[in-house]
Write a structure and sequence with these properties.
Elements: H1 15-25, E1 29-32, H2 41-50, E2 58-63, H3 68-77, E3 81-84, H4 89-98
Helix pairs in contact: 1-2
Length: 100
């Protein structure tokens, strides 16, 4: 769906690979699961937020962890938005539209 909407997309299958790809690709927006192998999405967000070159990326937690506490933890880790799985196309487009 993202590619059909004209977005360039890179995919990572775990936290460490995600950090590598983010550093190489330097996306404007990052959709990140919380329950990742290797390191959590919270750790990925913290790593992105501490890297001056990546600090401006719009971070979206796209996750099955959707309680109020999970949303709070995502915000504390540096995520700009939190979307519960499975998202609708409209939800994804809406959160993408919020990115600067």
């Amino acid at each position: 769906m993202l590619e059909l909407d004209g977005h360039a997309v890179e995919v990572a299958h775990d936290g460490p690979e995600g950090i590598e790809k983010v550093r190489a690709f330097r996306p404007d927006l990052l959709l990140c699961d919380i329950g990742l192998p290797g390191m959590s999405g919270y750790e990925v967000a913290r790593a992105v937020r501490t890297d001056p070159a990546l600090r401006g990326a719009f971070l979206v937690a796209l996750t099955g962890y959707a309680s109020i506490e999970d949303q709070r933890r995502a915000t504390e880790a540096g995520f700009d938005a939190h979307v519960a799985k499975p998202p609708t196309v409209e939800q994804l487009r809406g959160v993408i539209a919020r990115a600067p």
